[in-house]
Amino acid sequence: MSSIDEIRDTRIKKLELLKSKGVNPYPAESSRELALHEATLNFDTLEKNKEIKWIAGRVMSIRGQGAIIFITLNDGTGTFQGLLKKDVLGGEKFNFFNEVVDIGDFVEIQGNFFTTKRGEKTLEATDWHMLSKSLKPLPEKWHGLQDYETRFRQRYLDILFNPEAKEIVRKKALFWNAVREFHLKNGFLEVETPVLEITTGGADATPFKTHHNALDLDVYLRISAGELWQKKLMVAGIPKTFEIGRIFRNEGMSPEHLQDYTQCEAYWAYANYEDMYKFLQKCYRYVAQETFGTLKFKINGFDVDLALEWPLIDYTKEIEKQLKINIEKADQKEIEIKLKELGVDYEADNKARLIDSLWKHCRKNIGGPAILVNEPKITSPLSKSSPDNPDVTERFHFIIAGSEVGQGYSELNDPIDQLERFRDQEKLREAGDTEAQMTDHDFVEALEYGMPPTAGHGFSERLFSFLMDKPIRETQIFPLMKPIDDEKNKIKEMYVATAIVNSGAGLEPWQIMNTVAHLSAAFGARSQKKLFKFDSIKTKDDKNIKLNIQHAIMIKTADSSDAIWALSDKAQGEGLEIAHFTREMIETTNDKKVAEQTQMKSQKDIDFLGLLIFGPKSKVDALTKDLKLFS
C-alpha cells in the first residue's frame, strides 16, 4: 500500500499533466446547471425530455474498466451516478479522464439522463471538466477517522463521511435560527455590543486579556453577551433587546465548558424574573420543537420532557434537604468541612464560592426540567434582592439533567446598591478570586440616570449540546486544538530572557539597575505570552504570594551601542521578542519628549543603553554566547 506522501507525489504529477495540457486544475467558474438533489427530484422529466445538463460534485467512487467508467458524485445536496463511455465521450477525453482523475477530485460532467438496467438514475457524459484537483486521498469510508483527536483536527473529513457530524452542523443552525425567530416574534430587537472591553462583567469568569495597539490599551474579551451594554440600552429607552454572539472565558474545559462559545442574552424592561422564566420556558419548547421535532429527550441518563410542568426549587432548602446544612446559618469553616466530607474539590477561599460548590454537588441529582429560585445575594452581584427576604435574590436557573442550562433575574437598577456590590466583588478579586466581577463605573453612572425595572436572561450552546446528548466539544464545528507539534512531535523548549547592558555607556550602578528594570517591565507589559505558571501561591497560613515569571532572566554586557543594535537586528530576524532602552528614556520619563527627541535622530545617532531578548533558550544563547555575564 502506498504511503500518503507517495500518493500525493503521484497526484502532483497529474496536476502538472493537467497544466501541461493547458487545463486549469482550479478554475473559478463552473458550468453546473443542476444541484444533485434537483437532478434526482426532477429525473423523470429530465429523462423524458432528453435534456442535456451539467452536474458537478466530488468524485466519491470510480469503478469500471476498459471503455466504461461509472463514477459517483457528491455535491453536499445529494449523490448522483455518472457514466463515461469511450465511444460517446471520445477516446481523447475518456483517456485523459482516466489519466488525471482520482477519488476526491471535483469534476463536472455534461450529458443526458437515463435509467440503467439495475434501475439506477444516471447521467451519460458527453463532456467533462476538472474543477479542483485533490492532492491527498480521502479516507476509505470511515477508515482512518476513528481516532477522536483526528476527527476534530480534520473536522471537514469527519463531516464529509459522518452523517451524524453533518447533522450537528445542520441542527445547530436550526437551533440558533429558532432562538432568533422566537425573540423577534416576541418584539425583541437584535443588537450588537462590543466584544473588546476595558472592564468586563456580567458573569463570574476569568477573562482573556489582549492589547489594542492603535489605542495602546489593554482590553478584555467579553465574558457575557453584552449584559451591561444591553442594560444601558434599557436606560436609553429601548425596552426589549437581545444578542446572539460569541463570548470568551479563560477557564477549564469539561464536557459542559469551553473557552469560546455562542450565547444568547436578552433584556426586557418593565418585567421581572418570573415574567422572564415563563418567557424562557416557552422559548425552550419552541426551539426544541423547531430543531428536533420533539420535546422529549434522553440526556445524561435522565428522561427529560420539556412539555411537563417545571417545578420551582428553593436554593437554600434544596441544599439543606440533600446535605443537611443550612447555608444561611453556617459559617465558612462549616461549609469547608461539609465539602471535605462530600469529597468535593474546591479552590475558593470565600463563602460565596464555597456555597456555589455545595450547590453544584446537589444539582447533579436533579433531572428536571426545574427552575431554581431564591438564590443568595452573596452569589448574585447583579440581581435584585427579594422584597420578602433581602438576603436572597430574584434570580433563577433552569436545571436539566443535573446541570444549569440557562438563567435570568430581575436586574439590579439601584446605582448605590450596585456600586456597593461591585466593591464587594473587588475585595474578592484582591483576595485572589480571578472570577469575581470588576467595578464598571460607566455602568453605575448609567444607572444613576435611571433604568426601569428590567428582567434579563442568558443561555449558551450548552443547551444545544444537552438536547443532542453530547459533550459540548462534539457539537462545535471546529473546536480549538493544540498544534500537533506541541503535543507529540516536540518537547517544549525552555524560554529565557537575556538583558544586555551597554558597558561602554559609562552608566552608574543605579542607572544599570534602572535599565534592566525598565527593559523587564516593558517586555512584560508588551508580551502576549503567558509568562506565569500560576498567578499566586499560598503559604501554610493561607496567605497569597504573587508568583514571579517561570522563565529565567540573565544579564550580560555588550561594549557599545552599535553592538546592541546589531544584536537587536539579528534577534528580530530570528523572530524573537525584544525591548529597547535608550539614553533618552533614562533622561526623562515623559514619553512625548522621548518620542520628539528620537524623531530628530537617525538610528546610528541613538545611544542604546540596553536590550532585552526573549525566546527559545537555544536561539537566545546562540545570539548572546560571546557576551560576558554582568558582574
UniProtKB/TrEMBL annotation:
Cofactor(s) recorded in Swiss-Prot or TrEMBL: Mg(2+)
Cofactor binding note: Binds 3 Mg(2+) ions per subunit.
An example Gene Ontology CC term for this record: cytosol
The keyword Secreted is assigned to this record: no
Aminoacyl-transfer RNA synthetases class-II family profile domain mapped to chain residues: 178-483
Xref: Gene3D superfamilies: Bira Bifunctional Protein, Domain 2 (3.30.930.10), Bit1 (3.40.1490.10), Nucleic acid-binding proteins (2.40.50.140)
UniProt protein name: Lysine--tRNA ligase
